[in-house]
Write a structure and sequence with these properties.
single chain; 185 residues; mainly alpha; two-stranded antiparallel sheet
């Protein structure tokens, strides 16, 4: 998922995104962002032996403390990239053609990647009243794997570097990983 800077977040979405989890997370992020980002950069350059096993051991505790439905900040501030398979699956679910789906909901990113992304933020499929996804069973792969915590760090360190700013679960995992690696080494 990427930060979507094209459309401003509506005032309703801003008010809704101010959940208890986000209110608790933002001051900690402001205080610790530079340290965490430097830590992640260091890990990307020289990952310690067994980092993936350490991360795997920390993940259950993160999910115990962070509940996505109490946050949905990713859906409110970022956009997934839509793969062709995602567009086919979702458009079929919505009873539309792929072209009609793209015309109504998506825009193609500028630049080299030319990925398909949401036309607006928050995500048009997010129900703001309860932070649930209206297309959850067919959501894009980018959404279903977000925040990419259980993948090889070597492949996703750069993603964690970005997501630590938007996702309390990523922030918690990287904070805990920093504590564990500093006490070990």
């Amino acid at each position: 998922m990427r930060r979507n800077n094209r459309r401003p977040i509506s005032s309703h979405a801003m008010a809704t995104s101010n959940s208890t989890l986000i209110r608790r997370y933002r001051p900690r992020l402001r205080k610790n962002r530079p340290l965490l980002r430097r830590f992640i950069t260091r890990l990307q350059k020289t990952p310690p032996r067994g980092i993936d096993a350490t991360i795997s051991a920390l993940i259950p505790g993160v999910w115990k403390d962070v509940k996505c439905l109490s946050c949905a900040n990713c859906c409110k501030t970022m956009s997934p990239t839509y793969l062709p398979a995602d567009m086919r699956r979702i458009s079929k679910y919505l009873g539309m053609t792929v072209n009609a789906f793209k015309d109504k909901y998506l825009e193609q990113e500028r630049g080299a990647a030319r990925d398909w992304m949401n036309r607006s933020t928050p995500c048009q499929f997010l129900r703001l009243s309860d932070n649930k996804c209206r297309i959850y069973s067919v959501r894009p792969l980018d959404c279903s794997t977000f925040p990419h915590l259980g993948v090889r760090f070597a492949d996703y360190g750069h993603v964690h570097h970005q997501n630590v700013e938007y996702c309390p679960a990523t922030y918690e995992l990287m904070s805990r990983l920093k504590e564990v690696t500093e006490t070990i080494g």
